[in-house]
Amino acid sequence: MTKKLVTLAAFFGLVAIILGAFGAHGLKSVLTPEQLTSFETGVKYQMYHALFLLLISQLNILTEKNKRTIGILTTIGVFLFSGSIYLLATQELSGINFKFLGPITPVGGVFLIISWFFTAFYSMKQKRN
């Protein structure tokens, strides 16, 4: 599971860097300041959770099953939260109405919150050495 989490974290981090640079250089002149701020929020949360997955991959106090659960929750959260933000922020540019994704963003946020909750829960559940 460690290898999969590190690979996933690296993928999320790589994409966050690419999208962050694209937002700062390619979208700055075509998005409103509010849209750009929203896009940047998606990038930040994606990067936070890339780093989170790297941390999870290295925690010896979590079982492989715990890591898998946290990894799945985090992945769903990143795709729903950051992914919906990217599409909503650029919908005028793409000409596609993504407003129906508005309710998806907080659902993604809930998945991210739950992944952090389970990290704390699983950590506290471990027997003391």
From TrEMBL:
PANTHER family tied to this protein: TRANSMEMBRANE PROTEIN 256
InterPro entries: DUF423
Keyword Cytoplasm among UniProt keywords: no
Family of the protein in this entry: Belongs to the UPF0382 family.
Record-level GO cellular component terms: plasma membrane
Keyword Coiled coil in record: no
Keywords, ordered alphabetically: Membrane, Transmembrane, Transmembrane helix
Residues annotated as transmembrane: 47-63, 70-88, 100-122
Compartment annotation: Membrane
Protein name: Uncharacterized membrane protein YgdD, TMEM256/DUF423 family
Source species, domain of life: Bacteria
Membrane-related topology note: Multi-pass membrane protein
